[in-house]
Amino acid sequence: MPKFGIFSWFGFVMSLSxxxxxxxxxxxxxxxxWWEDEEGSPSxxxxxxxxxxxxxxxxxxxxxxxxxxxxxxWSETASARDKIVKQHVTWLEDCAKFDIPIMVMHIMEGxxxxxxxxxxxxxxxYLTKKAEEYxxxxxxxxxxxxxxxxxxxxxxxxxxxxxxxxxxxARLQGEEALLKDFDRRLIAVHLSDNxxxxxxxxxPGNGVIKWSEFSNSFPKHYYSGNLTLEVCPTDEERKAGAxxxxxxxxxxxxxxxxx
Length: 259
Prior knowledge:
This protein has one domain (4-256): TIM Barrel (Alpha-Beta Barrel), CATH 3.20.20.150. Helices cover 39% and strands 15% of the residues. The chain contains 10 helices and 8 strands. Helix 3 (78-97) runs parallel beside helix 4 (118-134). The chain is globular.
């Protein structure tokens, strides 16, 4: 049975420490962090976050890095490409420094999908070599760039490069077959449901995704990571409060995990 996780941001405004406490109390084993400083009261520097997670007893599964300008991974302009690649190298260094095993990244941003080309492969190959050097893994997430994950994983063979399967993105873009096509290279998952129209981040079972098909396709014999939710509450769930939402989230994940 895989361990259960939920992203550290789950739609309720409160301090990271309080969110982590509620996640732990709801029964989850792990969490993931958005890798930027948190503004608010109190403000928290990202370098302080891994200790907050680990002091709670939760596993820090991965960090999700910002995806601003990630289309430039595919840019024909070397200076634009170098800038975004160097930024990701810095985040890989952070993973090594704070003993974080996985960096989840996007290979594009926004609605303007870049062209799949050799420049993107060069960018990802360089990052993969750095991940090998730092002994961490890169999980490239499936987004709106249809065919992007297939293209990259087909071109670059490495135990340090795989993908993060986002169930909502896969449903919207018709890429559910990634679980079977690259079963041995699944590194992380972002599980949520939607209405078939937008990326809603609903709990599994609240939307149109056929979770029985997901369970049948899931590479349980190869995947050693956690089952992790990336969800936010509906208006009704928000009214019930964060504690009840997390308990409901844990129950939905427990039902889903019966492979």
